[in-house]
């Protein structure tokens, strides 16, 4: 029987891997929806504390070091200490992105685990006779992000993400707490109801490290082959997989292979 509370409260929850095989009960989904509704209007800090109280130590956070992730990382030591944090290191990230790992370790003592796919970039490109991001980005994202995250999800019950509803139409209905079918985890978005402006004003005011590429015209930063500069009035995820019609890598959508 799946409950919102973890083993620390005395229940003997089955391991998450087993959990993932079975669809959650309606009762469980209703509990999540109720928790989500009750957290509307809460601050991101309150939501993070709730996540920690409810799911630690089986709580994780994934970040691509976007502005939202950076802000959440800055709150982590106080609101959700000892949370396991990972970044999907596809081998195609910008050096400026990777540098943020050390900046957060220095400033906040937060260690972000760089999770790599089994095959290095040269091995992977040799296997596919060249870079797959050019011919089949969906498969590339699947192999280098989704599979890696599936592994990281083992033994966890919930993950914190930086999604915001105003990031674009695919994210407009993001709940604060929801069920992530793809990974068999509860997904918590403390900034779901926040806005781009609020996130940035806190980053500036609180001097949170962020990716310097944002100052060079990149609104959303992922792997370098699939990220371009975008015009000032576009959708926030413009510049990701530009010209392909793809706006999501599939981490945050129900279909395979289509955001972090
Ligand atoms: Fe591959 Fe591009 Fe996806 Fe990165 S964003 S995993 S390079 S397709």
UniProtKB/TrEMBL annotation:
Major place of residence: cytoplasm
Gene3D superfamilies xrefs: HUPs
GO terms for MF: 4 iron, 4 sulfur cluster binding; adenylyl-sulfate reductase (thioredoxin) activity; metal ion binding; phosphoadenylyl-sulfate reductase (thioredoxin) activity
Composition skew (Basic and acidic residues), residue ranges: 249-260
E.C. no: 1.8.4.10
Keywords: Cytoplasm, Iron, Iron-sulfur, Metal-binding, Oxidoreductase
One Pfam family named in its UniProt record: PAPS_reduct
Entry cofactors: [4Fe-4S] cluster
UniProt GO BP: hydrogen sulfide biosynthetic process; sulfate assimilation, phosphoadenylyl sulfate reduction by phosphoadenylyl-sulfate reductase (thioredoxin)
Boundaries of every Phosphoadenosine phosphosulphate reductase domain copy: 59-229
Binding site for [4Fe-4S] cluster: 140-141, 223, 226
Record pathway: Sulfur metabolism; hydrogen sulfide biosynthesis; sulfite from sulfate
Region of interest (Disordered), ranges: 1-21, 234-260
Location of the protein in the cell: Cytoplasm
Cofactor: how and how many bound: Binds 1 [4Fe-4S] cluster per subunit.
Keyword Metal-binding: yes
Catalytic activity as recorded in UniProt: [thioredoxin]-disulfide + sulfite + AMP + 2 H(+) = adenosine 5'-phosphosulfate + [thioredoxin]-dithiol
Signal peptide per UniProt: none
One GO location term (cellular component): cytoplasm
PANTHER family xrefs: PHOSPHOADENOSINE PHOSPHOSULFATE REDUCTASE
Similarity comment: Belongs to the PAPS reductase family. CysH subfamily.
UniProt name for this protein: Adenosine 5'-phosphosulfate reductase
Organism: Pseudobythopirellula maris
